[in-house]
Amino acid sequence: MDYIQIASLNHYSYCPHRFWRMFCTNEFEDNQYTIDGTTLHERVHTVGDLNLGETRQIRAIWLKSEEYKLIGKADLIETENGMFYPVEYKRGKKGEWANDELQVVAQALCIEEMTGTKVHTGYVYYAQTHQRQEVEIDQLRESAIATITAIQEIVDKGKIPKAEYSKKCKGCSLY
Prior knowledge:
By secondary structure, the protein is α/β, with parallel strands linked by helices. The chain is built from 5 helices and 7 strands. It has helices at about 5-15, 15-25, 30-45, 100-115, 135-155, and strands at about 5, 50, 55-65, 70-80, 85-90, 120-125, 130-135. The chain is globular and about 50 Å long. It starts with a strand and ends in an 18-residue tail after the last helix.
């Protein structure tokens, strides 16, 4: 079984067919949303680690889970009093974006395995509004694991998810 990218949980949750096209056929096209996101991540990843009193910020760190066969780069991990808090940066506005939250949970699963420390909380930082959305890891853990299983089935068995039109298609770079 191959490793899957942490970000693939976000893409699969947003649209399974888009995930398949991007990660299984390597089909990708940029649009303004993806370009803005790439620019944001480049900026976040170039800033060095920071110590802010009791809190340390570690940027652009590679994560891996043998148990879940996940690999990917975390934008930011904050540490305080021996606890870890993954922070994923997104270009848009704060809201209830389950796909963004699942990406944070996948990062938490990797951090837990790598450090032996339980992660209870993470965040999504939305650059457009400069706001953080708290992600309660324990509430979404089972959903993230189910998503990982669904992704692995697609990758391992070559199962192609059906394309289903929705209002999200309008902003998709592959539509």
